[in-house]
Amino acid sequence: MSRVVILDHPLIKHKLTFIRDRNTGSKEFRELVKEVSMLMAYEVTRDLPLVEIEIDTPVTRTKSKIISGKKLGIVPILRAGLGMVDGMLNLLPAAKVGHVGLYRDPNTLKPVEYYSKLPQDVEERDLIVLDPMLATGGSAVAAIDFLKGKNPNSIKLVTLIAAPEGIDAMERAHPDIDIYVANIDERLDDDAYIVPGLGDAGDRLFGTK
Ligand code: PRP
Ligand code: URA
Known about the structure:
By secondary structure, the chain is α/β, with parallel strands linked by helices. 31% of the residues lie in helices and 32% in strands. It is built from 6 helices and 13 strands. The strands form 3 sheets. Strands 1, 4, 5, 6, 7, 8, 9, 10 and 11 form a 9-stranded mixed β-sheet that branches. A two-stranded antiparallel sheet has the order 2-3. A two-stranded antiparallel sheet has the order 12-13. Helix 4 (138-148) links the parallel strand 9 (133-134) and strand 10 (154-162). It is globular and about 65 Å long. The termini are far apart. Bound molecules: 1-O-pyrophosphono-5-O-phosphono-alpha-D-ribofuranose (PRP) and uracil. Uracil is lined by residues 80, 133, 135, 193-194, 197, 200-202.
């Protein structure tokens, strides 16, 4: 079974309300998605291994901990995952960024792949896959199918809003992958949009509708 971690910190809940609001314009939407992603990065990296080093404070020599050279890869699913990259990079500046381009065909609702570019040493990296919406789950399942074929060290999925259907699809296809989500909403509507959701994440980020 996937571990589903709901990140319901008050700051995340507060910002998610304004992300959902239809009256929030693209500029503010982008800023809020970035801020929530940064807050999520804090929890997603909770299990990073530490090593002890020796340093000199102004007062004395002491032992203290730093993150032990873990190689991370941030992989947004295009387009909407791009909105989450900068927030993650703020906390994880040494991470490399790969891209997987998928869109959901509006008629079949099946994901169509159109682009991918990953760090050369992907096999040594722990990947954090970003997509603000997990609706039917088709896009995330396909992206993770593709990434598993590249043999990374590990994969986690980070999403802002999930439908129960998307969580179920991920658990069926990829029970080994942990999912970090700010909220699990009620359901999908007849067009497979998440209810209440936030609408079309890509369009709201980039102002394309
Ligand atoms: C959105 C979203 C996910 C996908 C979720 O992308 O960013 O990738 O839909 O739906 P699913 O779980 O049913 O697959 P979209 O296909 O609209 O492409 P875009 O990001 O380029 O707008
Ligand atoms: N993709 C989106 O951007 N929003 C949804 O609600 C579902 C899929």
